[in-house]
Write a structure and sequence with these properties.
The protein is mainly alpha-helical. 54% of the residues lie in helices and 0% in strands. The mean pLDDT is 92.
Length: 105
């Protein structure tokens, strides 16, 4: 299925670069040998949008705004829950969040 999370990033006022960083984070974690599908790919992407938004200082990115917009956009509420996996992948997260290079995308 098509990834429509760019719509969520857009309504949250995130840049394409922020969304790309979230996508790279999701992709890197979902392919990591220690990833055991703690979250669905869609929910993982929501978590990553949340983490990138927080990291970039985007005030529009809150748990409640994500609940509201996921419901508006897709009719299903998705709660960001990065706490379920963040500790285990903190090095990966830090490396991607601190990088300015989005791999030429």
């Amino acid at each position: 299925s098509e990834d429509r999370t760019i719509e969520l990033a857009r309504v949250l006022g995130m840049t394409l670069q922020d969304w790309t960083k979230a996508y790279i984070l999701k992709d890197t974690i979902s392919k990591h040998e220690n990833w055991f599908n703690t979250r669905s790919p869609h929910a993982l992407m929501i978590d990553c949008i949340y983490l990138v938004g927080k990291h970039s200082g985007n005030k529009a990115v809150t748990q409640s705004s994500i609940l509201k917009f996921t419901k508006q956009l897709w009719g299903v509420v998705t709660c960001p829950r990065p706490h379920e996996w963040r500790k285990q992948f903190k090095d990966v997260i830090q490396q991607i969040l601190d990088s300015d290079d989005t791999g030429g995308l």
